[in-house]
Specification:
single chain; Rossmann fold; six-stranded mixed sheet; 6 helices
């Protein structure tokens, strides 16, 4: 990325320790990472190395124990709960590995949730949700409940939900894990288009080597640390 590009995310010496009943597990051992506007950053590394913890801190879902993590110049750790919720609702889209769809709502209703939280009228929100479902190849499944969808289809609903309110930062945990090659490629093309906007940024946790080529940079993590940041999977 251009060295003059403005930072969307700036993590400095971020530490997160879990207390597991007397034992302390260092999930993040002093992370320094900068993600630029207009960038698609991937985090790779073995299971349990801290990738999901890091994106949860970046998205304001978890609080770090020390260090700073600024998102668009705001340190979420020091926000009041109400301020943090409002900031996240407007600026951040999160694709959870477990999808986290509400079982009693159909696909359109699930996708429209971020818009409704932001004050958009339900009819307008559901119309926009249907448009985004069309973009991820689920235009005919808008009325389907999660239980009526395959794992891959649920994953695409979760991705549509993260995109629908046009957030400035999109954080994805294994967004292609349940998708076949063609569908995964199409979803990554869509996410890549989002990342091309200079006032947007994406960070993606993945084990899927098939999608490494979509990244602008790849950060390799191990044991709670970032080992290196490279421009190509060939340099891993």
């Amino acid at each position: 990325m251009d060295g003059l590009a403005k930072a969307a995310v700036s993590c400095k010496n971020v530490v997160k320790v879990y207390d597991t009943g007397g034992d302390k597990v260092v999930a993040l051992g002093g992370i320094d990472l900068e993600i630029c506007m207009g960038e698609l950053m991937m985090l790779v590394g073995p299971s349990g190395c801290g990738k999901t913890t890091l994106i949860s801190v970046i998205a304001g879902i978890l609080d770090q124990d020390s260090g700073s993590c600024e998102v668009f110049g705001k340190d979420l750790l020091h926000m009041r709960s109400s301020e943090k919720l409002k900031f996240r609702a407007k600026n951040i889209g999160f694709v959870f590995q477990a999808f986290n769809l509400l079982p009693s709502l159909n696909a359109v209703e699930n996708v429209s949730i971020p818009l409704i939280i932001n004050g958009v009228k339900r009819q307008t929100a559901e119309r926009q949700a249907a448009n985004v479902l069309e973009q991820v190849g689920l235009g005919t499944r808008g009325k389907s409940l999660p239980s009526q969808l395959s794992g891959g289809q649920q994953q695409r609903v979760a991705i549509a939900r993260a995109l629908v309110h046009d957030p400035r930062l999109i954080v994805c945990d294994e967004p292609t894990s349940a998708l076949d090659h063609e569908t995964g490629h199409n979803v990554m093309e869509l996410l890549r288009q989002v990342a091309l906007h200079r006032d947007r940024a994406l960070v993606i946790v993945t084990h899927d080597a098939r999608i490494f080529s979509f990244a602008d940079r790849i950060a390799q993590m191990d044991d709670g640390h970032i080992e290196k940041v490279v421009d190509s999977a060939e340099d891993l």
